[in-house]
Amino acid sequence: MRKLWKQAALGSFAVALLLAASSPVVGQDADQLQLLEGRVDGFSFIGNAGGEFLTIPVGARGVAMGQAFTAVVDDISALWWNPAGLGFLRSPAALFTNVNMPLDAQINFVGVGAPVFGGNGTVGGAVTVLSFDKMEVTTIEEPLGNGQQFDTFSTSVQGTYAHNISDRFTAGASVKWAHENIRSPR
Fold this sequence. Notes:
Strand content: 25-35%
Radius of gyration: 23 Å
Order of helices and strands: HHHHEEEEEE
Structural class: alpha+beta
């Protein structure tokens, strides 16, 4: 009887997966698609995306591998690359990255992780801050600046857990809170 229930559950899952894969995906309405096809009068793509700082990689090893590091990550940089890789940590670890970028931008990443439950799991956390030097406010009428300045920063805080299922397989998940702020001109 138990085997029959397992087979029925597996069959139901397979049918649900096939239905989900074959259903059409609608992610945008006609007005949004028009914006993607070409420029619309009065619309600017500047500032159209948020959270772009979350795509800036951390850790020299992963960046040096051309960002092909996700499948082999086994150190504390797994907090950014792949949370499941954090399960391979055998002792507490920490990572600090500071990168000065073009346009007076600076990104800082701090991450820590430690094994728990006798080494069967690993918990970790990270904080990322992207900051810029003060910038001059420019307008169409005053493209060289109007004498006012503003500053901006982006922050994310992350919590991660990875669990060892076997000596070669781990699963992990992260929860991340992100915030971006532009401070008014002074």
